[in-house]
Amino acid sequence: MKPIFSSFHSLHSPLFHPPLPLHRRPRWPRMDSSTPHQDSGENKAKLIVIMGATGTGKSRLSIDLSSHFPHSQIINSDKMQLYKGLDITTNKIPIHERKGVPHFLLGEFDSIDADVAPSQFRSAAGLTIANIVSRGNLPFLVGGSNSFIHALLVETFDPEVDVLAGLGSVSHVLRYDCCFLWVDVAWSVLRDYLCKRVDEMLDSGMFEELAQFYDPDRESVRVGLRKAIGVPEFDGYFRKYPPWESEENGVVPEEGCDPVRREAYEEAVREIKDNTCRLAKRQIGKILRLIGAGWDLRRLDATATFGAVMRKKKSSSSDLEWRDIWEREVVEPSVKIVKRFLE
Predict the structure, then answer these.
(1) Tens digits of per-residue pLDDT, 120-138?
(2) Nearest 5 degrees, angle CA 75-CA 76-CA 77?
(3) Were 52 and a residue from 63, 71, 112, 183 both cysteine, which residue would form a disulfide, CB within 3.0 to 4.6 Å?
(4) Which residues form the signal peptide (predicted)?
(5) What percent of the chain is predicted at pLDDT more than 70?
């Protein structure tokens, strides 16, 4: 069964391509504030920023809001979703769920052999925002990579200092006029949902996708797309059971099969769940650091929605309950916040 909020595929957008070479990292000046943008005060470009830990429904909210703001266009700020490939593993939003809303920087970077640096994202996303605004459209920045969000938004960015790791002070001086929407879920509920979502991703073909991606010559290289949760965890499994050696090694080992192989599979799944939860905790910690620095994030509590989602999974009830709660407690308040911001 496909995850409620995240079993995503990629878009290679026909409308915009990053102006930077995708096969190598360019050189960047130490203090990068040169990407074109509006000047200051009321002249700053308006930007809607949807933030939150992994699995909290950011992409769903962006699509729901687009029906209320028809000129909105979405820029991805999830670092693993920047890369082309591993669509299920990286939870890219499927094309049929985008409802025709243009998406940018989603599956756009070809290289998996080098990391996209925060400075590179700052440049590519900054030019994308300028392009969207120049056509009279409203840009939405959506994703959970807070280091990329910080790099893009601050007026003065130093690529040598990771301020979100506590190595310096976080600036509250931003180069865009931002409306921040923070989708939050109580940890006990989010943890259970994230573990269930991993199972659903596996049901949707994540294991088979990773089996095709596995490369024994590059399994020790942890850059680019190879950092995606799921890749290192299953590399150990595929090292023992290479998918090209037999057909059964490329499919999920079912209950009752070789118990050693099944245990190796289950251990990889446990590691994926643990690492996904650790990622979510780190993301929440960085969001709290931004709030502490004076960033005006408007919190939207989606706990009741996800509680209803989990009840639905246990009882096989209809989608009506969680959809009603989501609309009432997340979408409607978000619409009001954005309308006030734009007016």
Answers:
(1) 999 999 999 999 999 999 9
(2) 115
(3) 183
(4) none
(5) 85
CB contact at 8 A, 334 and 65: yes
What residue spans of 112-258 are helical by DSSP H?
Answer: 118-134, 146-153, 187-203, 206-213, 231-240
Q: Is the dihedral of CA 255, 257, 262, 265 positive or negative?
A: negative
Q: Contact, 138 vs 46, CB < 8 A?
A: yes
The pLDDT tens digits for 163-198 are 998 777 899 999 999 999 999 999 999 999 999 999
Which amino acid is present at 165?
A
Which amino acid, one-letter code, is at 155? E
Separation CA 247–CA 241 (nearest Å): 10
Measured from the Cβ of residue 128, the count of other Cβ atoms closer than 10 Å reads 25
Of the CA atoms within 13 Å of residue 130, those in its CB half-sphere come to 16
Token pair listed for 74: 């979405």
Half-sphere exposure of 206 (CA within 13 A, CB side): 28
Distance CA 141, CA 93 (A): 14
